[in-house]
Design goal:
The protein is an alpha/beta fold. About 35% of the residues lie in helices and about 20% in strands. It has 2 domains: about 5-260 and about 465-485, Rossmann fold, CATH 3.40.50; about 280-465, Rossmann fold, CATH 3.40.50. The chain has 18 helices and 21 strands. Strands 1, 2, 3, 4, 5, 6, 9, 10, 14 and 15 form a 10-stranded mixed beta sheet that branches. A 6-stranded parallel beta sheet has the order 18-17-16-19-20-21, sandwiched between helices. About 50% of the residues are buried.
């Protein structure tokens, strides 16, 4: 059995639209699978921000008819483009009422009330598109709650459609915290029999949970790291779905995300001051000096820490705030890039005013600055309370910047502690201020040791490419195609 065709359905994809790591995976994984011989194509919405002229999108002939239950048939336009620097086709579903908006999922952090209809529409449109372009896939690869409905629909409304008799579906969970919970009226758009509205399939506290349904009806589930696959089966990390997943864990696989080396590579990175490699790691210091100039910090050789990410509880931002005053008393420098909760933004702005010679805070997101920070700092802070996979710890390793992480999810799988063989960073486990500050002080003292540079080189030699992960996804696709009795 060979997997030839995959339709990859996602709500976001770099460089077209992004709110988080899903967008990075939705670009990098298809490119890696294409190199492995899979004819993989991407389907996503044509949001307001996706510029048709910039990306040279071409309209397909005719309209796409999408049956939407009580709404009747809706008519969408489909545009075809290419994923930059690849030969992966991307199909954009354009329907102005649903996707012609400023935000992807919300407006100023207020979720759109019709998100259930919008993304059930995306799922149905993807199925109908496969027929329109005569690309009946071996696998529909769905991602998070936004395309979970496809798994449900494929095995209910389309269950007797002979067109898809040899098609299986895979659902990737990038963050189980987001589940797509809606009123039970969502069933009217799913066109799914009310018999499926039960605690084992779609029902969740009187409403519909699209991710829960997707988990039930898909042929295989993946998460973005092996440890996260274990964690989501526990009450602490399962966000209410731990028992549901535990009962279906025979089809659950954890595969660590990879890194797109075309985008993140100090040997070829045009966004940093000085390119370098593991054999020329001493040149990394030029990027540190550049950062000090950009942020008006004293030109001195002290441990420089960095943080890039959302200023939210998940990322351990409260832990950092709780130890900040003690941390900043050390002979260090610290640069932060991110945006998030207002209290956090205000707190770190105040700390910048209080300690201008040690700490700088860039509120917002800037891709060029993210590259400069990864290349310039010595230690990268990532004390996440939970982290399904994480990418910045991998970017840091590639740039010879040692990650300081909490051992959870993908951080546990990708980082080996400083005092162990093949070390590539620092790691602690207890989500407490004391554990974090003690590990920071360990990292500061280690900075002046001979071992620090050796561990930097270890980190740079780690292979975080998508090649290995892509092969594991192909194995999951093969599993999903097996008869259900065999899979159990």
């Amino acid at each position: 059995m060979e997997i030839k065709k995959v339709l990859f359905v996602t709500s976001e994809c770099v460089p077209f639209a992004k709110t988080g790591g899903l967008a990075d995976v939705s670009s990098a994984l298809p490119k890696a699978l294409k190199k492995e011989g899979v004819d993989i194509r991407i389907v996503m919405p044509r949001y307001y921000i996706v510029d048709k002229e910039k990306y040279k999108l071409k309209a397909l002939e005719g309209e796409l008819v999408v049956p939407m239950g009580k709404l009747g048939n809706l008519y969408a336009q489909v545009f075809e483009g290419m994923l930059p620097n690849s030969d992966v086709k991307v199909y954009f579903i354009e329907y102005e009422d649903f996707f012609g908006r400023k935000g992807l999922y919300d407006d100023n952090n207020i979720a759109y009330k019709d998100n259930d209809i919008r993304f059930i529409f995306l799922s149905k449109a993807s199925i109908e598109l496969s027929k329109k372009i005569d690309f009946i896939p071996d696998i529909f690869h769905c991602n998070d709650w936004q395309s979970s409905a496809l798994n449900i629909i494929l095995n209910t409304k389309y269950a007797l459609d002979s067109t898809f008799s040899h098609t299986a579906s895979v659902l990737s969970i990038h963050n189980i915290n987001y589940q797509g919970k809606f009123d039970k009226s969502a069933l009217d758009y799913l066109e799914c029999d009310y018999k499926h509205f039960n605690m084992y399939e779609l029902e969740d506290f009187g409403g519909v949970n699209l991710l829960k349904g997707g988990i039930k009806f898909c042929d295989a589930i993946t998460t973005v790291s092996p440890t996260y696959a274990k964690e989501i089966q526990t009450p602490e990390f399962g966000c209410g779905l731990d028992q549901h997943i535990k009962g279906l864990n025979y089809k659950l696989f954890g595969i660590l995300n990879g890194v797109d080396y075309d985008e993140w590579n100090p040997k070829t990175d045009n966004l940093i001051k000085q390119k370098y490699s593991v054999s020329s790691i001493n040149k990394k210091s030029i990027n540190k000096e550049d950062l000090q100039k950009i942020f008006d910090l004293p030109q001195k050789n002290v441990p420089m820490f960095g943080f890039i990410g959302r200023l939210v509880e998940q990322k351990g931002i409260e832990l950092i705030a709780s130890i900040f005053e003690e941390f900043i008393q050390e002979d260090i420098q610290f640069i932060m890039l991110g945006t998030g909760e207002k209290w956090a933004e205000d707190f770190f702005r105040n700390m910048e005013n209080k300690y201008p010679d040690k700490f700088k805070c860039y509120i917002g997101y800037n891709n060029e600055m993210a590259h400069k920070i990864e290349a310039g700092v010595d230690i990268f802070l990532m004390p996440s309370l939970f982290e399904p996979c994480g990418l910045n710890q991998m970017y840091s390793c590639i740039y010879g910047t040692l990650p300081l992480v909490r051992g959870t999810g993908g951080l546990e799988d990708s980082i080996i502690n400083f005092d162990e063989k093949d070390a590539n960073g620092f790691k602690f486990y207890e989500a407490s201020p004391m554990a974090l500050i003690n590990t920071i002080k360990w990292a500061i003292s280690s900075y002046y040791s001979n071992r620090f540079k050796k561990v930097q080189k270890n980190a740079m030699k780690k292979d975080f490419s998508w090649k290995k992960s892509a092969k594991l996804y192909k194995d999951v696709y093969m599993y999903a195609k097996l008869p259900k009795l065999v899979r159990r």
